[in-house]
Write a structure and sequence with these properties.
The protein is of the alpha/beta class. It has ten helices and twelve strands. The chain has a domain of 215 residues: Rossmann fold (3-Layer(aba) Sandwich). It has a six-stranded parallel beta sheet with strand order 2-1-3-4-5-10, sandwiched between helices. Bound molecules: guanosine-5'-diphosphate-beta-L-fucopyranose (GFB). Guanosine-5'-diphosphate-beta-L-fucopyranose (GFB) binds next to helix 3, helix 6 and strand 7.
């Protein structure tokens, strides 16, 4: 990838897409192509075709997706499967047709089987049923991986797929439809501000997740775009697991909330564990840099700056 290559970041206003854009600019890539959702609806095949015909991107980061936390996945399964299948089908097929040199497809760690052995190696994919709260989203993401592999097999397309751990950071959604880390930052912050006596967490607090800071995720994607050319999917993780209870404790202290916490066990737990085995990408020379404590603080600072409030 040259500094003046035409690089399309699909989903550049999203969590990972916006971090990718920052990283590409920092590294002086000068020909970055973006379109807002309003300007280009990626579920609209003729529109995507016209866009690719006009811009002819040489490299594509497919970071556009309909995403959300466990609540959003449970509430909108039809939208999650439809929109994600449409987005990736249109982008992948147009990338082939308009001769994109390389495409990176971003997947998700929720596509591993619910009862997967831990840490999860890439070869464990497709070895069992995925967890029910995210099966619609997960099926779309599994199809995306198979589609990249099929296009490589039949047409020789250099389409690669990466599986990041639970990504968090600036640009996340801090409401009830968000992923757990951002949703809890929002909840604890609001509770502190309004002197609420208790914060309710969902589920049992026992599930464990691997949290990857968004700048590390973007850095890993760029690394793979430069160095990785295989049909095999590749994991992108930090190698540390944190339970939801531990996460809540960390967030509580980051936010400075003094009240109590309780659990609403009528809400789903989702996957019991989800730790990636990232030894394949480590062997290629990439490592995550940002610890959970540091990433949490950066995310909270960003959130407060967005709300124009002070943490002091
Ligand atoms: O990030 P999250 O919503 O989804 O985290 P997943 C869910 C875990 O955190 C569950 C608990 O165990 C929840 O019960 N939790 C506790 C909460 N309190 C809260 C809260 O206030 N909000 C939220 N959201 N969770 C997502 C998938 O799975 O991970 C997506 O739904 C995607 O499809 C993404 O793959 C990476 O981590 O379980």
């Amino acid at each position: 990838m040259k500094k003046n290559s035409r690089i399309y970041v699909a989903g550049h206003t999203g969590l990972i897409g916006s971090a990718l854009l920052r990283r590409l600019k920092e590294q002086s890539y000068s020909n970055i192509i973006t379109r807002t959702h309003k300007a280009l609806d990626l579920t609209n095949q003729p529109a995507v075709d016209r866009f690719f015909a006009k811009e002819k991107p040489e490299y594509v980061f497919l970071a556009a997706a309909r995403v959300g936390g466990i609540h959003a996945n449970k509430t909108y399964p039809a939208e999650f499967i439809y929109q994600n299948l449409m987005i990736q089908t249109n982008v992948l097929d147009c990338a082939l047709k308009h001769k994109t040199k390389k495409l990176l497809n971003l997947s998700s760690s929720c596509i591993y089987p619910k009862k997967c052995k831990q840490p999860m190696k890439e070869e464990y994919l497709f070895s069992g049923d995925i967890e029910e709260t995210n099966d619609a989203y997960g099926m779309a993401k599994l199809a995306g991986i198979k589609m990249c592999q099929a296009y490589r097999r039949q047409y020789g397309a250099n389409f690669i797929s990466a599986i990041p751990a639970n990504v968090y950071g600036p640009g996340d959604h801090f409401d009830e439809n968000g992923h757990v880390l951002a949703a809890l930052l929002g909840k604890f912050h609001t509770a502190r501000k309004s002197n609420k006596k208790s914060v309710t967490l969902w589920g049992t607090g026992k599930p464990k997740r691997e949290f990857l800071y968004v700048d590390d995720a973007a850095d890993g994607c760029l690394f793979l775009m430069k160095k990785y050319n295989s049909a095999e999917t590749i994991n992108l993780g930090i190698g540390r697991e944190t339970s939801i209870t531990q996460l809540a404790k960390l967030i509580r202290s980051t936010v400075g909330y003094k009240g109590s916490t309780s659990f609403d066990t009528s809400k789903p737990d989702g996957n019991p564990r989800r730790l990636l085995d990232s030894s394949r990408i480590h062997a290629l020379g990439w490592q995550a840099n940002v610890s959970l404590e540091d990433g949490l603080q950066r995310t909270y600072d960003w959130y407060c700056s967005q709300l124009a409030v002070t943490t002091k």
